[in-house]
């Protein structure tokens, strides 16, 4: 299968808005990369320095990449919606189009993605590598496919570190926007009793189910396609994982607060630092107290505990 890779180079302040456009259009995977990724476009034949201001490298630029099946005609919609982002944020968004084949994507991961450790216990191992675990290590096998969630990005690492620190065993967990399923799998391997994993992206759901099977956890992790905000209202849980965006986190929080037991945990990540004050305010409104904040460059992760209705 062939995929359209649409890359938008813009300032970090509107990264979530651009990612939201891609999600709205039904992208089969969205990735936000940092300034170094933005610099790589300088070497492309379609790069025109005149498209950017002379002080380009003094700004906080990012690349937001999205993948659509080849038959989808979305470029016109992307450009129309990006025009609104430019007007609202006072920025410029530049679009680059490429083609990716499934086999190219897979080979790319195998070339650059290797086993690595997060914290003291969690080892993330791609399915094609061998690894002999040391005493006390938890090994999560992942084949990311076309889904976001490898553990490399700071936002995923934040949630993995929160799970390692605060999950005690026996919890019922919701993984909102599960991507590759990496957080769901890690939660169960760290002792969670049950995980409901959801994503609006059918590609992510397919990949997550394959990874759950790869780790032999089909009996403890239920992966569904759909709107987690609607689903979570039917559940009573101990922990909610939300490695998504600040905008979606703010929509999710009122329902998460109703689903969580008193003393339950909400782990939010994928938050650009400029949007964190809004998340912080929403957490307070919904009866949470912040226990820990993690930061890495422009990204923020937050662990919050529910203390009141």
TrEMBL record:
Keyword Zinc: no
The keyword Flavoprotein is annotated on this UniProt entry: no
Localisation per UniProt entry: Cytoplasm
Organism for this UniProt entry: Thermosyntropha lipolytica DSM 11003
CDD domains, A to Z: AdoMet_MTases
Pfam families linked to this entry: PrmA
PANTHER family attached to this UniProt entry: ELECTRON TRANSFER FLAVOPROTEIN BETA SUBUNIT LYSINE METHYLTRANSFERASE (PTHR43648:SF1)
Signal sequence segment: none
GO biological process: methylation
Function, in words: Methylates ribosomal protein L11.
Keywords from the named record: Cytoplasm, Methyltransferase, Ribonucleoprotein, Ribosomal protein, S-adenosyl-L-methionine, Transferase
Molecular function, one GO term: protein-lysine N-methyltransferase activity
EC number: 2.1.1.-
Top-level taxon of origin: Bacteria
Annotated transmembrane regions: none
Catalytic activity: L-lysyl-[protein] + 3 S-adenosyl-L-methionine = N(6),N(6),N(6)-trimethyl-L-lysyl-[protein] + 3 S-adenosyl-L-homocysteine + 3 H(+)
Class of the enzyme per the UniProt entry, highest EC level: transferase
Protein name per its UniProtKB record: Ribosomal protein L11 methyltransferase
Annotated family: Belongs to the methyltransferase superfamily. PrmA family.
Residue numbers binding S-adenosyl-L-methionine: 156, 177, 199, 243
HAMAP family for the chain: Methyltr_PrmA
Listed InterPro entries: Ribosomal_L11_MeTrfase_PrmA (IPR050078), Ribosomal_PrmA_MeTrfase (IPR004498), SAM-dependent_MTases_sf (IPR029063)
Predominant localisation class: cytoplasm
Cellular component aspect of the GO annotation: cytoplasm; ribosome
